[in-house]
Amino acid sequence: MIKISMIAFFILFPALVMYLCDRYAFLDKLGAVVICYIVGGIIGNTGILPGDFFKIQDTFLTLTIPVALPLLFFSLDIRGWFRLAGKTMISFFSSIAAVILSTTIAFLIFHESIGNESWKVSGMLIGCYTGGTPNLAAIGTALRMDPTIYLAVHTSDVVVGALYIFMLISFMQRLLLKVLPPFKFAGNSDAESGNEGFMTSFRGITKEDILPLLGAFALAVLIFAVGGGLTLIVPKEISMVVAILTITTLGVIFSFVPTVRKVRMTFQLGYFIILIFSLVVSSMADLSKLINTAPAMIGYVSIAVFGTAIIHLIFSMIFRVDADTHIITSTGLVFSPPFVPMVAAALKNKEVVVSGVLTGILGWVVGNYLGISIAYALKNFFM
C-alpha cells in the first residue's frame, strides 16, 4: 500500500506544483523544478520510502526523460531559427564556443576533487547551458550519472544561476551598453509571439486538446521504444547514449510534421514529466554526501557559468553584437526559452523575444549532442 501511495505521489505532486506555480507568483519565482527537488530530497532522506523502493525509482528514471524529450521537441518550429538576424546567429555560436571552453577549464581545475564523475559533469553542464534542465537531465541519464552527483550539479546550478539571472534582469544591460552597441528597434509588434507554446502550465487546455495530446504522447512512447530497442543491439557501455541521441533526433524530425507540431500542450506535458524526474532523482540522493560534494561543485559550476559569460562577451565585443541580443541569447541558452520573456521584459524590448526563444530551441536540439560528445572527449583525453 505504501508503494502504491508513493507511486501516486510521484505522479500527482508535480501536477499540483504546476498548478500552484501558475496560480501563485511567489512559487513561480521559486520554480517548479526547485520545489520538486526540495520535496524529493526531504522524502528521500527522512526514511519515508520503503527499503526496496529503489527499483521503482530507477524505473521512473529510465522512463521519464526518454518520453519527455520528444514531447518537448514536437511543438518547436526549427525552421524559424534560420530566420534570425545575423548578429543573433553570431551570438549563438559565440555562446556555444564559450560554454565549451569555460566548462573544459572548469573540468581541468576540479576533476580531481570531483572524482570519476567529473567528465559527466562537464557534459551535463554543456547540455544545460545550451538547452536548460531537460538537456542536463537527458545527458545525466545517458551517461548514467550518480544521483547524488546529479543533485549536486543541479543544486549548484540553481544557486549560481539565481545570481546570474538576477544580474541579467537588474544591471547587466546598463553595464554592457558601455562596451556593446545598443539594440536597433525595427518596430515589430508581434515579436512577443515567440513565447507561444513555451508555457509551463496547462492553463487554457480544452477537451478538444485531449485526444491529439494523447496521440502525441503515444508517438513519444513509440519513439522511446525505438531508442530503447537500439540498446539491445549496441554495446552496453554506449547503449543509453545511443538511445538518448536517437530519441532526440526522432523528436526533432517529427517537429517538422505540421500535424504533430500543431498539437497543443505537448511542451507542457513534457515539462510535467521532467518534474516527475526531478522529484524522483532528488529522492534518491544522499544529502550527507551532497554536503561533502557541494563546495567543489559550486566552484565548478561558477567557472562554467561566469567563464561562459566573460568569453561570450569578448566574442560579442569583437563582432559588435548589440547588448540586448547578447543578453537574450545568453538567457535562451543558459536558462532555456521559458526565461526569455521575463528577461525581455526587464530589458523593455519585445523584439528580442523571438530571437531568444528560437536560439534556446536550437540549444535544446544541439545540447545533447554537444554535451555527450565533449564529455567522452574529456574522458578519453584526461581520465
Can you give a write-up of this model?
This protein is an all-alpha fold. The chain has one domain (2-181, 201-382). It contains 18 helices and no strands. The protein has helices at 2-23, 25-30, 32-44, 54-74, 78-81, 86-114, 118-131, 133-142, 147-170, 172-176, 207-230, 239-255, 258-261, 266-283, 287-319, 323-334, 340-347, 353-382. Helix 6 (86-114) packs antiparallel against helix 15. The chain is globular, with a radius of gyration of 20 Å. Residues 187-198 have low confidence and may be disordered.
Explain the layout of strands and helices.
Blueprint lengths: L1 H22 L1 H6 L1 H13 L9 H21 L3 H4 L4 H29 L3 H14 L1 H10 L4 H24 L1 H5 L30 H24 L8 H17 L2 H4 L4 H18 L3 H33 L3 H12 L5 H8 L5 H30 L1
Helix pairs in contact: 1-14, 3-14, 4-8, 4-11, 4-12, 4-14, 6-7, 6-15, 6-16, 6-18, 7-8, 7-18, 8-12, 8-18, 9-15, 9-17, 11-12, 12-18, 15-16, 16-17, 16-18
